[in-house]
């Protein structure tokens, strides 16, 4: 439990930066991802007549990691479906914590990539002027309806390099002033989170 709580703490600065960069939409995606993962695990435990395992923090970490890999303007109903799949198939099906054949968060993301490829390759610009005053219509799209994107969009850095021969400036790459998944752009905070865990002897720094 101590390790899991420290991992959760290490992720919070990245989450804060993602909300600062992408606004209310990122906050809703992260909250929906985490809450749905936690509720799904609790329900599965109850259906199997087992004590709930949400207190070990592992499923909360799954929810945060899963949410951080998603586009910040992804419809919330897609976020919820992927979260259910992540926990039910990626985690519970293999026996739960310590028995996973794959990272449950990435199982959920891979499922969404296969099921909703267009939505999963749509990126919003960071630091939009109205990011704290309005919610993108795509985020609040009605379940199973085609999302409508009303915000300015941008290609990811890899797409710009491949198709447009545009190279991003190094400071933008370093500080996360670029389009991308909700939590992938803040490199400095991701690095510091890993350094914190290494300093607390929660991971071997050589592996990452």
Explain what this protein looks like in three dimensions.
With 208 residues, this protein is an all-alpha fold. It has eight helices and no strands. It has helices at residues 2-22, 24-47, 58-68, 76-88, 104-115, 157-163, 170-175, 187-199. The longest helix has 24 residues, at 24-47. The chain is globular and about 50 Å long. The mean pLDDT is 89.
Summarize the structure.
This protein has 208 residues and is mainly α.
Rounded to the nearest angstrom, the radius of gyration is: 17 Å
Outline type: globular
Instruction: Look at the helices and sheets and give the structural class.
Output: mainly alpha
Order of helices and strands: HHHHHHHH
Q: Estimate percent helicity.
A: 40-55%
Percent in strands:
under 5%
| Total DSSP E strands | 0
- Average the pLDDT over all residues and give the rounded result: 89
* Low-confidence segments: none
Number of helices: 8
End-to-end Cα distance, whole Å, is 21 Å
Assembly form of the protein: single chain
**Largest sheet, strands/sense/barrel:** none
Topology:
Layout: H1 2-22, H2 24-47, H3 58-68, H4 76-88, H5 104-115, H6 157-163, H7 170-175, H8 187-199
Helix pairs in contact: 1-2, 1-3, 1-8, 2-3, 2-4, 3-4, 3-5, 4-5
């Amino acid at each position: 439990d101590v390790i899991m709580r420290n991992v959760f703490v290490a992720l919070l600065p990245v989450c804060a930066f993602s909300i600062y960069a992408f606004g209310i939409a990122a906050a809703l995606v992260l909250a929906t991802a985490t809450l749905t993962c936690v509720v799904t695990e609790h329900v599965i435990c109850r259906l199997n007549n087992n004590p709930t395992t949400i207190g070990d923090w592992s499923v909360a970490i799954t929810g945060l990691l899963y949410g951080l890999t998603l586009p910040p303007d992804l419809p919330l109903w897609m976020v919820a479906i992927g979260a259910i799949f992540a926990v039910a198939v990626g985690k519970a099906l293999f026996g739960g914590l310590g028995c996973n054949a794959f990272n449950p968060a990435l199982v959920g993301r891979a499922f969404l990539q296969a099921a909703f490829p267009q939505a999963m390759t749509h990126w919003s610009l960071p630091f939009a002027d109205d990011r704290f005053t309005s919610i993108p219509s795509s985020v609040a799209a009605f379940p199973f309806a085609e999302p409508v994107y009303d915000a300015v969009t941008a290609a990811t850095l890899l797409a710009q390099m491949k198709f447009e021969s545009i190279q991003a400036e190094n400071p933008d790459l370093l500080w996360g002033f670029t389009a991308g998944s909700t939590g992938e752009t803040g490199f400095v905070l991701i690095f510091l989170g890993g350094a914190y865990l290494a300093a607390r002897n929660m991971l071997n720094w050589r592996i990452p």
